[in-house]
Amino acid sequence: MANAAEHSGGHGHAGVIGGSGGRLGAARLLLWALAGALAVRQAAVVLSVPPGQWLGGFHLPGSLPGSLYDSGQFTGTPFAGLVLKPLVALAAPSLELAWISLTLLFVAAIGLVAARGLPDPVPRRTALLAAPVLTALMMVSLPVREAASPSQTAVLPVLLVLLAVFRVPGGRQAGFLIGLAAALQPALLLFAPLLWLTGRRPAAGAAAATFAGATALSWAAMPRDSWTYWIHHLAGTGLGGAPDGLANQSVHGALLRLGLSGPAEILLYAVLAAAVAFIGLRRAVRYARDGQLLLAVALTGCVAVAVSPAGWRHQLLWVLLAVAGKVGRRAADRPVWPVAVVLTMTLPSAVLLPNLAALAPVRDNVLLLAALAAACAVPFLPRSSPYWREPVPTAYGKPAAARWQRVPLLPFWRRVLSRPNLLLELLLIRVGYSLYSHIRAAAPTSRDLAEGNGSQILGIERAIGLDIEHAVNHAVVDTPWLEAFFNFYYTSFHFVVPLTILAVLYWRRPGDYRWARASLGLATVLALIGFWLYPLAPPRLMPGLGFVDTVHGPQDLANPSYGAMTAISNQYAAMPSLHFGWSLWCGIVIVVLAPKGWQKLLGALHPLITVCAIVATANHWVLDAVGGAIVVGAGFGLVYVLSGPRRLRATLPAQRTASGAAQDHGNGPDLRTPAGVRAS
């Protein structure tokens, strides 16, 4: 393992390739500035907590007597309490500032040490930018946001392990640091077997001896607390929260959340923990011997948290370090693992997965599943793989000249002909829609402003003769079968049709999929701007106009909540109408791409029926549909400006050959048509 550490850049990147430049230096400074700004923001959040409340996690903060665990809030080991309690007594007035400052400095140190541990050869850009990028990501990660709480020592053990592996030359000194880390977080003693199996046996022995000595010292100094932690609470299980709480992201916690309990649960937990430890350590040893020492360390840390009886969220920083591994033979597949890890470690699980009961076991254990995937399942490439340095390249279409000379095409918006990675697409679509929902819900909801804008829209429609909503609404209410049809159409096709079109294009026409997906996304972003700038009451929420809400039922306009629907979404996010906008997008895509006339006809009918539905059900004004048409047109126009026309002229034979070679790697069907190549 020592040789692997030297080979993998533990003492400098001997294999850095490429040249440096002023732009990389400027980017590095900007990224460090971003990391600093995020650190200041995190410090401000912690310092906003009253000191008395912040120090409550230690229990009896001003004096040495008393049990660490009387309050049930302290989750550290007795050794951690032995070290921390005097600090609380001596530095209570300034401890809050000192604690958050040291925590954030430790995070920056982890970024620096981990960046130096990347396996050779390291491109110049990666070598310069890895540390600030990793530090910035850690600053916004869930573990670091929670580690700033009192008594949480999760960041320091990670730093101690990294220093032991990459910066300390001697074996026993490295083992001493890992033993201290294990004394603070016992499951990290799993690094001792990793050291032993990779040839660093003196370090492994020193780690075990240091852990035993620190634990014995805490037993001698604090026997009651040691009994409480090790025996009564089984290595801290149940301290700081219920064992089945969402904060316990370990295999034990997941089994308890599934409803298992008693001896059967303990036996199953022991079997699963042993299996995870065996598989994870075996993989870590293999990658350490392969020269990917940082990945080996990350996998071992993931195993340690997963098999611990209480693996807290703030201890899962190891998952973020696992982005050091490369996954996938194609260049297009390389971002999938890093993106999945970053999203998992920075966003709440409710953003990643919809709030469905069937998905609760996955949603409640997202961080644990990420750790288990990294430790036991993700097929990281070995450095001996021919795809390690040269993955299968992505096929790009022939660049198109800009139609408008004053608006040049963006050089980074290149035409990808191959099919995008499905997992990455699903992740981005889900996260994008969740962010859209949150932004829409957070848009201004002033009732007076929304009703005033509604009166303004109605006045404009009356002036130009478009105020047909009331007549259409009551005509439909008087025709029960028509009312039922429009209610069904309004509630059923809004998401189904766009998702179906995207799925078909993804499978059959990947080039057109990218063009269609980009235009839909840009149109939706523009619509969000409209929701913020122009909150609008739909006809059904306008008092005194006599509209009938056929979909949601009678609304009590005297009650500001208007009923249950207000708790679900922002009822004033009506201009522009994305119900009509998305249906118009569907119609345009189908008419442009469908090969048969009857398919084009159905595509054209969809937005026509939708506009009738949104007006008939009193959910939108006619001008809302006009707004939806404007943002969809702007979405298609922006894609055209950014990447040129959708259809390209016929490509050269050499380019067609390259495109065909890309398809041989599973990138999708032939993208050529008699008129040329489909472009994104």
UniProtKB/TrEMBL annotation:
Record's bilayer topology term: Multi-pass membrane protein
Keywords of the record: Cell membrane, Membrane, Transferase, Transmembrane, Transmembrane helix
Gene Ontology CC terms, in alphabetical order: plasma membrane
Molecular function terms, GO-annotated: hexosyltransferase activity
Localization of this protein: Cell membrane
Region (Disordered): 654-680
Regions crossing the membrane: 97-115, 127-144, 175-197, 203-222, 266-281, 293-312, 336-359, 366-382, 488-507, 519-537, 572-594, 601-619, 625-642
Major site of localization recorded for this protein: membrane
Chain ranges of the Inositolphosphotransferase Aur1/Ipt1 domain: 456-637
Pfam family, one: GT87
Family: Belongs to the glycosyltransferase 87 family.
Protein's UniProt name: Inositolphosphotransferase Aur1/Ipt1 domain-containing protein
Gene source species: Streptomyces subrutilus
